[in-house]
Specification:
The protein is α/β, with parallel strands linked by helices. The protein has a single domain, classed as NADP-dependent oxidoreductase domain (TIM Barrel). It is 41% helix and 17% strand. It has helices at 35-47, 62-71, 75-79, 104-118, 131-134, 137-148, 161-170, 189-196, 219-233, 246-257, 262-268; strands at 12-17, 52-54, 82-87, 89-92, 97-100, 123-126, 154-157, 175-179, 200-204, 237-241. The protein has an 8-stranded parallel beta barrel with strand order 1-2-3-6-7-8-9-10, surrounded by 5 helices. The protein has a two-stranded antiparallel sheet with strand order 4-5. The radius of gyration is 17 Å and the shape is globular. The relative contact order is 0.16.
Length: 272
């Protein structure tokens, strides 16, 4: 594994997934916000103390929007942020769809494009990974190319335990991104493996794509319960919330922090 570890080593941190600012997504087919709306969301995130942002080429205009926002920040503020993106699932802008291509050339072209849009990549993940993909020679060559481009930390976005195990067995991946929530605990065993290998968990779909928040009249209570489950299950890593609205993000940050001990909350609050 690489020596540089920009991901949080010993805490569970809330990050922002940016699928929502780039393309239609979710069960309700939510439209992305306007350019100003996306900028407001990203600025609100930083003001609330969010420092980890997760995007991907397959998220439509997400990388481009994040990149433009980052370009407007001073160098000092950018240094404090962790920007994660992916390679392997690509966007077909003409058709508004995505497709998978894990060949070395496609991955290298994707890395080049992402670097041009984002300026710097702190964590590169292999998107839509499978057991075969995470150890494929072409993929490994692409990771070497990424390392030569200055990227030092790598992950795999997985949807089954066997793929996560295979990725960690290669020694090439520092992190695994996978879904985990109260309704779907099937990949919780990966947390133990990550602890054993000093890897980092990047947890997505904490609300089961919004399903957990629609179960009653008080979505705030359901959000707190969802985060509490993750705090009791995963002791360190990143939990990605995927909202595209600044007001919802503020609610999620508050729900996440109310699950911390008071002394921990006071340490994590950063000035706006």
């Amino acid at each position: 594994m690489s020596q540089q570890k920009p991901l949080p080593p010993d805490v569970l941190e809330l990050g922002l997934g940016l699928l929502s600012i780039g393309r239609v997504w979710g069960d309700e087919r939510s439209e992305p916000p306007s350019e100003q709306g996306a900028e407001d969301l990203l600025r609100q995130a930083i003001e609330l103390g969010v420092t980890v942002f997760d995007t991907a080429p397959a998220y439509g205009t997400s990388e481009a929007r994040l990149g433009r926002f980052l370009n407007g920040l001073g160098p000092g503020r950018r240094t404090d942020l962790v920007v994660m993106t992916k390679a392997g699932e690509h966007c077909d802008s003409d058709r508004g769809t995505s497709f998978v291509d894990h060949s070395r050339d496609a991955l290298c072209r994707s890395i080049d494009r992402s670097l041009a849009l984002l300026g710097r990549i702190d964590v590169l993940q292999i998107h839509k990974a499978t057991r075969e993909v995470v150890r494929d020679a072409g993929v490994m060559a692409a990771l070497e190319y990424a390392r030569a481009c200055g990227i030092a930390t790598f992950g795999a976005s997985v949807s089954d335990e066997a793929t996560g195990v295979a990725a960690l067995e290669t020694g090439a991946y520092d992190a695994l991104q996978f879904p985990l929530n109260i309704a779907d605990r099937s990949l919780a065993p990966l947390l133990t493996l990550l602890e054993e290998t000093s890897g980092t968990a990047i947890i997505n779909r904490p609300f089961a794509m919004g399903c957990l928040l629609r179960r009653g009249a008080d979505p705030g209570a359901h959000a707190r319960a969802a985060f509490r489950f993750l705090r009791e299950t995963a002791y360190r890593g990143v939990v990605l919330t995927g909202t595209g609205k600044a007001a919802h993000l503020a609610e999620n940050v508050e729900a996440f922090r109310t699950c911390e001990a008071p002394e921990a909350r006071s340490e994590r609050v950063r000035p706006a």
